[in-house]
Write a structure and sequence with these properties.
mainly alpha
Length: 313
């Protein structure tokens, strides 16, 4: 299909969305971590670029789960019935099944890597079959914003209204950053009031570039939560030392309870109880981690001073 058939997203939407859109794919390689597609999907509900990749990542994850479950149910049933009939047929079926599941796994791995790279690079990418089916079955998951019907190759400075090339770092007329103002719409250049959130002329959401000294940024907090959550580092970064230590102790308790229970050195009721406590600790930690991920991505989590995380990625 032609490139023009992709949903339209302007330069600002792509620049803002690509920092979360890539999360739609890599988790699929690690099984249930494929649910990470929920982070960009919930964080950027109005961004067509992010939602496009999140929808495709969701469909790839669902397809991988369905294929895996179907394969092992059907394949396992076949092996049980064939082994009693002929050892040779059982060996052939086993080898054939392993080839199929290995090929499927490699395909999903390749799709996930390509999708991650494309999304992080700010490019749309339609996976063969997967992408087409996702668009056909879930057409309303990608928002139809005003930018889809009104394409623009330029933006306007929100401080002076000067028309600028897309992605300009500074306005050549007033010298400030294009979004560092509240007098004009960045899409059509119409005059706006400071309290406005939507342009009354073109319907575009008005964006602002908010900065404050010492403010923590969303990207750093998100990466710390994604890769170093067991140590509670993302909470230390935001000044929440107490809850960071609590997260570390909870994570450590998982291994303590499960290890002591697995040793079976105590009476049966005791080691069973330890395993149960370990399981509950693991579930509690995973729920806490997912909530923190979504809270950071959606901008709902604040630092110790009660300030929102900076939008500057």
């Amino acid at each position: 299909m032609a490139e023009s058939s992709f949903p339209y997203a302007n330069e600002e939407e792509i620049h803002e969305g690509r920092f979360l859109a890539w999360l739609s794919y890599p988790g699929i390689i690690f099984g249930l971590l494929g649910l990470l597609f929920l982070v960009p999907m919930l964080a950027h509900k109005e961004n067509p670029f992010t939602r496009y990749h999140a929808r495709q990542g969701m469909f790839l994850f669902l397809a991988s789960v369905l294929v895996t479950v179907f394969f092992w149910i059907v394949y396992g049933g076949m092996l049980v019935s064939i082994i009693d009939l002929s050892p040779v047929a059982w060996i052939v079926t086993t080898i054939g099944g392993m080839v199929v599941i290995t090929g499927t796994g490699i395909t999903i791995f390749v799709f996930a890597i390509i999708g991650t790279v494309k999304a992080a690079s700010g490019k749309f990418y339609r996976m063969p079959l997967i992408g087409t089916m996702a668009e056909r079955w879930f057409p309303n998951m990608v928002p139809k914003t005003s930018s889809q019907t009104q394409r623009r190759d330029k933006m306007h400075c929100r401080n002076c209204g000067k028309e600028l090339p897309p992605g300009a770092e500074f306005c050549i007329s007033c010298g400030v950053r294009p979004l560092n103002g509240n007098k004009f719409c960045q899409n059509c250049g119409a005059e706006t009031r400071p309290e406005q959130e939507v342009c009354l002329k073109c319907g575009t959401l008005l964006k602002r570039e908010e900065k404050s000294p010492g403010r923590k940024t969303k990207l750093i907090a998100l990466l710390l939560c994604l890769f170093l959550a067991p140590l509670g580092v993302h909470r230390y970064y935001m000044g929440r030392v107490g809850s960071g230590v609590a997260m570390l102790l909870l994570y450590f308790s998982i291994f303590v309870f499960l290890f002591m229970g697995a040793m079976r050195s105590f009476p049966e009721p005791v080691w069973i109880g330890l395993l149960v406590f370990g399981a509950f600790a693991l579930v509690g930690y995973m729920v806490w981690w997912i909530i923190d991920l979504i809270s950071i991505a959606t901008g709902k989590m604040k630092d110790r001073q009660g300030r929102k995380l900076g939008e500057t990625w």
